[in-house]
Amino acid sequence: MSERSSTPTLPDVPATDLLEHGLEHEQVVFATDPASGLRAIIAIHSTALGPSLGGTRFHPYPSTAAALADVLALSRGMSYKAAVAGLDLGGGKAVIIGDPAKHKTEALLRAYGRFVESLGGRYITACDVGTFSEDMDVVARESSHVTGRTEAHGGAGDSSVLTAYGVFCGLRAAAESVWGDADPADVLTGRTVGVAGVGKVGRHLVTHLVDAGADVVITDVTPAAIDRVRDEHPGVRVAESTEAMVAAPLDIYAPCALGGALTDAVVGELTARIVCGAANNQLAHPGVEKLVEDRGIVYAPDYVVNAGGLIQVADEFEGFSFERARLRSARIYDTTRAILERAKTDGVPTATAADRIAEQRMLEVGRLRGIWLG
């Protein structure tokens, strides 16, 4: 898998400041099991809408502070993602510190599962970078609060399929808002789309784009990921680097790998009219969204368009139906259009409009729900 950990939104700051930042969260749990080598952090941002759901990221963070920054930012994003998607779920996330290729064992995953179980259902886990459906089957041997399991165990399987589909739906909505005079069926035909990161989600997104008639350019740090996409779609072009792709003529930029993809420098160079991708936490720092708006770039907020994976694993609660989950993910098109319209009406960046919609739902419903106790 080529998707990498998002860039923490609070890099290079003292751990005490990170802990202060975490006070907006309902609960942050540090989990250690010396026997298995487990070192993990589980962050529950909000249960105002229901139990918190979010994946487990297994990554070799350079420090505990970096891991904490990532899990705090990611769990907050999950709250907003679930709220905008209309789910009765809160936001949570977990990170396991270590190299999954070296440190992932049955003992470690089962120890992690026991910590998840100890939270009594306030946090429900699933897959993320460095973890897979097969890993969730192991975690589920110790906890009943697990989604994203393999199809053999009644789960939804690979959530990247509907994550990519949701991003494509959001991208199409953004394209129609920019090129409104085009036939909706052909709005992406001939448009140049740069996809940065073609691991699981990016790879599926490329297929949707090619099928829609787009001219696709890709980058990835893993040669095998590029080779796999080119084998499937020989017409796809490969850029020398993400930096070179961003500076080249693009109609749409789809960051699907690193978080923090939209820095001041990137926004200053970007030629694309639209940014819409699967990566989490794309805005490198607060204020970037205003710079994006000032340059006339339409930004489809990441947690809005990449909610398909969350919708997919959440569907397991009802007995998984791929078609039902796909239809629910298709609503991301309507949600994206509504947010773009709200941004115009309110005169604010699209990221602000999305936050307002999410916060309004959490506030209104949260008054009725309070803190989730299981």
From TrEMBL:
PANTHER family: LEUCINE DEHYDROGENASE, VALINE DEHYDROGENASE. Pfam families: ELFV_dehydrog, ELFV_dehydrog_N. Keywords: NAD, Nucleotide-binding, Oxidoreductase. GO terms for biological process: amino acid metabolic process. GO terms for molecular function: nucleotide binding; oxidoreductase activity, acting on the CH-NH2 group of donors, NAD or NADP as acceptor. Belongs to the Glu/Leu/Phe/Val dehydrogenases family. NAD(+) binds at residues 197-202. The active site is at 93 (proton donor/acceptor). This is Glu/Leu/Phe/Val dehydrogenase. InterPro entries: Aminoacid_DH-like_N_sf, Glu/Leu/Phe/Val/Trp_DH, Glu/Leu/Phe/Val/Trp_DH_C, Glu/Leu/Phe/Val/Trp_DH_dimer, Glu/Leu/Phe/Val_DH_AS, Glu/Phe/Leu/Val/Trp_DH_bac/arc, NAD(P)-bd_dom_sf. The lineage of its organism: Bacteria, Bacillati, Actinomycetota, Actinomycetes, Propionibacteriales. Residues 157-370 form the Glutamate/phenylalanine/leucine/valine/L-tryptophan dehydrogenase C-terminal domain.
